[in-house]
Design brief:
Cofactor (chain A): [3Fe-4S] cluster; [2Fe-2S] cluster; [4Fe-4S] cluster
Radius of gyration of chain A: 22 Å
Helix content of chain A: 25-40%
Strand order of the largest sheet of chain B: 1-2
Oligomer: heterodimer
Strand order of the largest sheet of chain A: 2-1-5-3-4
Radius of gyration of chain B: 22 Å
Distance between the termini of chain A: 60 Å
CATH superfamily of the largest domain in chain A: Alpha-helical ferredoxin
Keywords (chain A): 2Fe-2S, 4Fe-4S, Iron, Iron-sulfur, Metal-binding, Oxidoreductase
GO cellular component, one term (chain A): plasma membrane
CATH topology of the largest domain in chain A: Fumarate Reductase Iron-sulfur Protein, Chain B, domain 2
Number of helices of chain B: 8
Order of helices and strands of chain B: HEEHHHEEHHHH
Number of domains of chain B: 1
Shape of chain B: globular
Largest sheet of chain B: 2 strands, antiparallel
Family (chain A): Belongs to the succinate dehydrogenase/fumarate reductase iron-sulfur protein family.
Distance between the termini of chain B: 76 Å
Largest interface: A-B, 72 and 53 residues
Number of strands of chain A: 7
Structural class of chain B: mainly alpha
Protein name (chain A): Putative succinate dehydrogenase, iron-sulfur subunit
Amino acid sequence: MSTVTFKVFRGDRNGGELKDYTVEVQEGMVVLDAIHQIQAEQAPDLACRWNCKAGKCGSCGAEVNGKPTLMCMTRLDTIDTSKPVTVRPMKTFPVIRDLATDVKWNYEANKKIKPFTPAPGTDWIMFQEDVDRVQEFRKCIECFLCQNVCHVLREHDEKTGFIGPRLLVRTASLEMHPLDVENRLDMLKNEGGIGYCNITKCCTEVCPEHIHITDNAIIPLKERVVDEYYDPVLGFFRRLFGSKKRAEPSGQAADD
Amino acid sequence: MSTKPVTGTEKRLTDRQDNWWIEPLFTVLSLGIFGLYAMWVAWNRQHYEFGPYISPFYSIPIPGVHARDLDWLAISPAFLVLWIPLGFRATCYYYRKAYYRAFFWDPPACAVPELRKSYGGERAFPFVLNNLHRYFWYLSIPVMIFLWYEAIKAFFFSDGFGIGVGSLIMLANVILLSYYTFSCHAWRHIAGGCLNCMSKHKTRYNLWQRITRINESHGFWAVISMFSVWFTDVYIRLCSMGTITDFRFF
């Protein structure tokens, strides 16, 4: 058993400071265990959101030594505990208190995305190869670590013109759905602000579900936006022959 | 109302304790030195061929035209080809990540603060031109065909078929370049990614799956193929200058 110093942010949306806590750590402990120990023994008023302790509820997102991560999935033997371990709340969202942040902006921004829209009289038969891509996106646990680390939201506070990686993943899951006939490309280009994304892949790096956010969701969406708005040859053919309609009145799955 | 939170990190560079600066430093050094080397090779106009070997910088994608036939040009014949791979790599999704991080610090590493306050992303000139990546991919196909032609020619010496170290280097180079070119995200989209119903397009689905498999390592192919182009040119240059001797297996 050894002791480790934790510097934990204490404060609210008006500001705060790092406070030192010394914790006796045991083999196999994760950062969330240490925070619970601090709550139990030293600071019962320390606010921290958590639920499953298994990396599936997405509640305990924080920044451990500057890296956005789930506290329940960060073992102490994977970080250098010879120096004080810093634990701060997610920087992108307003602090409610201590490590708990207000993530409601994500749910507001989510309203920009048109919901799943099947063609009238859809035949609800799908093949596995049609839904492989979409199933990867359904693994998302909405921890919002990707939103937190995205520099467009984190550094530039662009919360009006950009929906962030989590919601781009959700859009991809709808746009690539074999039975969906809605067109969200205009939203992606304009109020979704996909052009803000510069593919630096931080969202992919922090995803606890290992979703290939950039390669499988954002880049394919960017390419679809290119098809619609930036490709001069496709634009010429569209003007010549008109746009392909996605909705098919036959009730069969739509293709583009 | 600004939703900008207060977490006490505003005045700090970063709490990260790992060596996050190594990756952008490697990118700056490798892309910077390679860029300067490529410019020097293009202006130099010498020592770009040795026997059946020709530097990839001087592989002109015009049928029947060899770089040495274009000595009369005011500019180096290398410029006739270099703009295509330059444009392809500059608009490539992997290189975009690399140079935005390393050269523009947008951001230098994950959760590390940036230097500049304003940011427009890829919505305005010049970065909006990155959306034309697929056109550079189209242009790269004839370049790849000619590189394969030159690589096969590297096995045919003045005394007939043979294998030299240079032949193998040129073959390895064109294989790595092919992996890079055909693991491209734009090609993945064109081949099948644009479809929603894969089951209706089995051939394109199979092609998309194969591309997806190598696309997962697109960054690796991007870096390794850049170094292989570099190494191939250096090898042929040193042979041509007489600094080293090309070993013939037979």
